[in-house]
Amino acid sequence: MSNANSITNQKIFDAIHETERDGHLTDRQSEGLSGLSGARTVGLLQRLAKIYEDVPGACYLEIGVFRGLTLVSTALEAPGLACFGVDNFATLDPGGKNRAIVDERINRFGARNAELINSDFEVALESLGNHICDRRVGIYLVDGPHDYRSQLICLTLAQPFLHENAVIIIDDANYPDVRWSTRDFLLAFPEYRLAFDSYSTDHPANLASTEKAAFEATWLNGIHVLVRDPENSLAPMMPPTADNERGLYLNEWLAHRLRLAELAPEALVLADAVVSGDTAAEQSAREALTAAYANNRPEFENRHKDRNVYSAALPQSRFNPGS
What we know:
Layout: H1 3-22, H2 39-52, E1 58-63, H3 69-77, E2 82-86, H4 98-108, E3 114-117, H5 121-126, H6 129-132, E4 136-142, H7 148-157, E5 162-171, H8 176-188, E6 192-198, H9 209-216, E7 223-228, H10 246-256, H11 264-276, H12 279-295, H13 297-301
Parallel strand pairs: 1-2, 1-4, 2-3, 4-5
Antiparallel strand pairs: 5-7, 6-7
């Protein structure tokens, strides 16, 4: 490992230890800067921003802005660091207000080095050079969709744009999808190491108020911190996973090929109500499932009951034009 990389990784470990001890550098929640990240997550990003502000050509990038807590908090701590946030506000925004909230907070707090990329994360990552120009991502926060594929895409598509000393922070590591995607990324890219991970006892939505408050002061719904270690000076370490969790991904394949695959969430809510014997919830779930079916009925009716592969329009065979 080069001396520069060794110093950077040591600084990263120091920042993690300081964050574990002290939490935020600056807490602006009383001023209206709120979101869904733990205090230590914000604190680590703030400390890392101070480190990478002095690294030539480095920038900060986050996938999943929500209401701007991490983007604005990070930008304010390092005014000389270009900070980019990617979000098209397609989820967790039923009222369609979050884009305006982010813009207002960037302006109100004077985070002039913060820039919102209003785009689907995958589209943005495929053309990231158009947004960050000749910069390289020194701090990369992955906090977008938490399904397995989205997590892995966020990690792999960013690779050409990462700084040689990049640190990757992966939020919501409690989810099995997130832990497995981190694990598989580390196996595919062995120059990276898991430097730190932390988990809470459950999702915050399922915790009692006192326990939830305790985890809000830490890493909330789990965290992974990855660093580059091309000379293998750090010990291999993987996120904790269980063999029975692999069945979740087999179930995805079994569900995706069915005629009503897109209705799986509504169908599972109904199934839960049925087996629980909750007749009121069952009626409500049936109505929701029927309404969701009606919204896309012609397409559903044109499918097979099972083994839908959507291959009718694909070429039967082809050669690479350069062959």
